Amino acid sequence: MIAAPSGTGKTSLVKALTDSIENLSVSISHTTRPMRPNEEEGINYFFISKDKFMQMVANGEFLEHAHVFENCYGTSKHWVAEKQHQGIDVILEIDWQGHQQIKKLFPDSISIFILPPSLQDLRSRLEKRNQDKPDVIAKRLSDARETVAHVDEFDYLVVNDHFEHAASELTMIIKTGRLLEKAQRRKYAGLITNLTKE
To answer: At 96, which CATH number?
Structure first.
């Protein structure tokens, strides 16, 4: 799981990870927010109506879901399970609320929080994106303070002060996570069984 205040560069960093590490995919969330320019259905998000979203919630189809900036976001249980069945590790780009929900379901999952180098840098990034009006930017900056207040709930912390450095740290975290005893025990279950037979 990777979380960050809006405008921190999380999406670009996650893309760099999935481009450079084999068998790694980013979860495609369902959302009720409108599609932005250059976004594609089924690539960036699954764009659905509020009614459809609430129906999926009622049916228990999400691993986690949250209401953020007047829009809803959710992670499909079926989509994630399908990827894992294919032997693919899944990155969930979620907020702190989603992180809390996922940690309850999967306590062994690895969570990473990405920080901007400063509040001023974050403001500058949000303004340069040219996607939001000033009042929305102000709301995002206010939300950033609440989001960062949950940083101690995460396993790892990365500061995106230089993109290449942050991407390198994230890569190390992912690769190290794959070498944890629990992950290796699942991967080499057959070998361990054979080696421990009398």
So the answer is: 3.40.50.300
Number of domains the chain is built from: 1
Q: pLDDT of 84-111, one tens digit each?
A: 889 899 999 988 888 998 999 888 899 9
pTM beyond 0.90: the answer is no
Angstrom distance (rounded) from CA 160 to CA 147: 16
In whole angstroms, give the CA distance from residue 48 to residue 28: 13
- Sheet containing strand 62-68, edge to edge, reads 46-47, 30-31, 71-76, 62-68
Structure tokens given for 94:
């979620």
Q: Are 174 and 17 in contact (CB under 8 A)?
A: yes
- 97: CB partners within 8 A, 6+ apart: 64, 66
Q: Give the angle 126-155-99 at the CA atoms, nearest 5°.
A: 60
- Its domain, for residue 131, covers 2-196
Please state at what angle helix 134-148 crosses helix 119-129, rounded to 10 degrees.
140
Q: Which two tokens stand for residue 86?
A: 């294919």
For residue 2, give the nearest of 21, 19, 25 by alpha carbon: 25
Q: Mind listing the pLDDT tens digit for each residue in 3-35? A: 999 889 898 999 999 999 999 999 999 999 999
